UniProtKB/TrEMBL annotation:
<feature type="domain" description="Rhodanese">
    <location>
        <begin position="122"/>
        <end position="215"/>
    </location>
</feature>
<feature type="region of interest" description="Disordered">
    <location>
        <begin position="308"/>
        <end position="328"/>
    </location>
</feature>
<dbReference type="InterPro" id="IPR022111">
    <property type="entry name" value="Rhodanese_C"/>
</dbReference>
<dbReference type="Pfam" id="PF12368">
    <property type="entry name" value="Rhodanese_C"/>
</dbReference>
<dbReference type="InterPro" id="IPR036873">
    <property type="entry name" value="Rhodanese-like_dom_sf"/>
</dbReference>
<dbReference type="Pfam" id="PF00581">
    <property type="entry name" value="Rhodanese"/>
</dbReference>
<comment type="similarity">
    <text>Belongs to the TrhO family.</text>
</comment>
<dbReference type="InterPro" id="IPR020936">
    <property type="entry name" value="TrhO"/>
</dbReference>
<keyword id="KW-0819">tRNA processing</keyword>
<comment type="function">
    <text>Catalyzes oxygen-dependent 5-hydroxyuridine (ho5U) modification at position 34 in tRNAs.</text>
</comment>
<protein>
    <recommendedName>
        <fullName>tRNA uridine(34) hydroxylase</fullName>
        <ecNumber>1.14.-.-</ecNumber>
    </recommendedName>
</protein>
<dbReference type="GO" id="GO:0006400">
    <property type="term" value="P:tRNA modification"/>
</dbReference>
<keyword id="KW-0560">Oxidoreductase</keyword>
<dbReference type="Pfam" id="PF17773">
    <property type="entry name" value="UPF0176_N"/>
</dbReference>
<dbReference type="InterPro" id="IPR001763">
    <property type="entry name" value="Rhodanese-like_dom"/>
</dbReference>
<dbReference type="GO" id="GO:0016705">
    <property type="term" value="F:oxidoreductase activity, acting on paired donors, with incorporation or reduction of molecular oxygen"/>
</dbReference>
<dbReference type="InterPro" id="IPR040503">
    <property type="entry name" value="TRHO_N"/>
</dbReference>
Amino acid sequence: MKPYKVLLYYFYSLIDNPEQYREEHHLLCLQLNLLGRVIVAPEGINGTISGLTADCEAYMNTLKADPRFTGIAFKVDETDTHTFQKLHVRVKAEIVHSDLPVDPLRQTGIHLEPEEFRKLKDDPDVVLVDMRSNYEHEVGKFKGAITFDMENLRELPDHVHELDHLRDKKIITYCTGGIKCEKASAYLLAQGFENVYQLHGGIIRYGLETGGEDFEGECYVFDNRVTVPVNHINPVTVSVCFRCNKPTSRMINCASPLCNNHITLCEECGNEHGGTCTNACKQDPHLRAYDGTGYYGKQTQSYSPIQGYKSRQGQRTEVNLSGSPLEA
C-alpha cells in the first residue's frame, strides 16, 4: 500500500453561502495538509486532492458527515507522494464550467454503475459518447466511442447535431470522473434525446472497480501524473508520438512556455528534443528544463498552502491553522 491517496469527487447540492463555505473548506484542507484543487459553487462542490492516507480518510469522513453532501462518493487511488504542488480552494459560478442551461439537481441521464456499464457497453443498440476535451480523448477512450473535436464542455451545443442520426439508440455518456456527464446528459435530454445514460463515477471509477476492460489508451488526469493507466484486462495504445508517430500513451506539456501544448511524446523523442513538440519550440529562448516528466508547475520556492488565504471581509491575509492572522 502506498502512503498517499488521490481523491477525485464532486457532488451537486445547494450551498447557500459559497464564500463562507470556501473559507471553512480551505481551513479544513490546511489542517489536514492536503494539496489540490477544490471548486465551491452555489450548485455544489468539485475537487481533486492528495494527501497522506490518514488525512484523506479524515477529509472524506468530514464531508460525508455534512448533511449537504450525503451520498458523496470518492474515487480513491494510491500514490507515492503528493500529486499536486499547491492548494487552491475557489468559488466559481459552476463546479464544472459549461454554460449549459440545465440543472443536474432536477434531471440527468440514468446513472449506470461500472459493472452495469461493462455489461451494456457492447449492446448493438448502445452508443458511447465521450464528453471530454479533444486532448483528453486523444490519449485514451472507450473502444468504439464517439468523440467531439471540442476544447471544453461549453462547445457541446455546437456538436449535438453529430448525434442526430442516433436518436433511436441508447446513448451512454462518460467522462473522467462523472461530473461533466451530469450536465451533458441533462443537455441531451433537453434536446429531445430520450434514452440517455451516464457512467456513474466516470472512467476512473470504472477502472478501479472493473479492471477497465475496453478502455483503450490511458486516462488524462488533472494533476502531476498527467495520465494514468485504466485498463488492466485488455490494454492497447491508441495515441502516437507527436514527432515520430511511434505508439505511445505518454503525454506531456511542451517545454516551450509559449506553446505549452498537451502532446503525446515518446521517451526517446522527449530526451532527443528536450520535451518540445516542434523544432521551432526547441528554439524558444525561455525553454524550460526537461526532466523527463513533461510536467511544469509554477515556481513554488516561496509557496506555502496558507498564503493568500482570503478572509470573510475579502482581505488577503495569511492565517494559521486556528484561523487567526499570522504575523508577517
